[in-house]
Structure prediction request, 630 residues.
Amino acid sequence: MEMVLVAPPAPGRLEDLKRRFFATPLQAVVSLACLTIMVFLVWKLLNWAVFSAVFTTSGGPEACQAAAGACWSVIAARWRIIFFGLYPYEEQWRSALACVAVVVMTVLSCIPAFWTGRRIALVWGAGTGLFYVLMKGGVLGLAHVGEEAWGGLALTLFIFVTTCLIGFPLAICLALLRRSELPWISRTTGLIIDGVRSLPLISILFTFAVVLPFALPQWLQGDKLYRVILGSALFFSAYQAEIVRGGMQGVATGQEEAAMALGMRYWQRISRILLPQAMRNAMPATINQFVISFKETSLVVIVGFFEILASGNAAYGTGEWRFAYVEVYAFIAFIYFIFVFSLSRYGAFLERRMSVSER
Amino acid sequence: MISTNSTGEPALRIENLDKYYGTFHALRGINLSVKRGEKIVVCGPSGSGKSTMIRCINRLEQHNGGRIVVLGTELNDDVGNIDEIRREVGMVFQHFNLFPHMTVLENCVISSMIVRKQPRAQAEATARRYLEKVRIPEQALKYPSQLSGGQQQRVAIARALCMQPQIMLFDEPTSALDPEMVSEVLDVMVTLASEGMTMICVTHEMGFARRVADRVLFMDGGEILEEAPPDEFFTSSATSAPDNSCRRCWAIDWKQRSECVTPHAFRHLHD
Prediction:
């Protein structure tokens, strides 16, 4: 046997494939079998979703049902219910604009150039204000639409965004209180966080929507929607508080000491030194929590709100489209995917951007 | 308001200072008075209370007994007093403690801007001047993690100086550095001393002590055991605690080591 003294030349792509998948006859057989299965599955999926699918509503549900492939006509016929729920038909352009407002607001606040207190406040204030006015109406000649009629994508986005908007600052407050030097403050906060975390979200939503009105005076109750958002924000903040606290523990104690030695006050130390570093440490878990919260908005159906998933049920549940539920769910899954995937990619971008200063 | 004129009031006066960690008596009746412009070097074995003492001066540690008067203001529970004193007392740490999420320049301007409320242009001009002084003006836009240990410590000194403090505290500023970087930091400290800064340095750099210090303090067991000008300190053969042979050995050991080097060659001394 000869000793190889020189490093072999870097293999080409084809050689590399051969080495990885076809090194022995058995490996070649397994590789080919897997490839066949994959091609078959992809072909089946494409055939169902595209080649044999029906895209127009012209033939009605009957023609669609007869087709071998997917019946996308249900989306063409029912997309308004999926996106807007029970929102009045003639006013649905408002709901669409409101969705755009929330998406634009979210995208803007993800751009580093907007990360100053005043700009972010402006963007969020304008965004939520615009959303509220468009959805609720009652001013500027817009017809009044009560919260009970809100639904679909607009409602999902609204619940998600307001949950984060209320829950995030609350989480930071809880995390700061939990690391207080006064034991009765840190213990009480710990008790609250652990208490909320040990309850299922559904029971919290149910309590805030249904039970709370019995305990609160009339003027404090507010609309059911806002109580549900509060409950969901509380739940979010309990988890996020622990994430932030974990991030804070990763910041060296010397950092706060250095800030103290420079004469910075408590809030200056927190906002300029501690939190920026803590949030950096907590970024992956935070994005995770956002993703989970986005998907958990579908639970509000239990207290009678028609967010996008429930609206989807309504879209196929009316007799003639009953057979097309797979297509409706596939479509809703696609919408979830777009939002959650963008969120994840944005998280990856943030991590790359922040790692520059920590090399 | 802290007075800036030197009307006989010492820069720092410590009387009967006591400090406990739980039941551990970390500082036992420390008395110390430091005049304006005076340079004090504090040495002693680890755990002797050196760091604790200088951390009490800007209230990174709370003392349990006695008085600390800094620039005429007594350190007590009054938060206003503490903030005022911290503004006038700069500190350099063993592990630099630069803010990793900010550039070198940001590190230097942030406290001038948010504590002293200076406009950015003014703060940056000051920062660039001090970065020049510690000989790294070209690193202003880098992040701390991109610098060597010695460079980071010089940035930390510049950052403290940007607040234009009247007293500088150094807590083992060269202990975490690779040997070849010690001298660049000590050079900066020598320059600072020659300009009349009031300095209190905890350090094991005896060459530095010989060259710069007006007084050297030897601490052990939470007490100041010896206090003398460097010439006297390094030539006397025993400490004032002859009863404790260990302490004595330690002090003699340090003194002998420092005698091995001539003062002008101190920059190559590292241990």
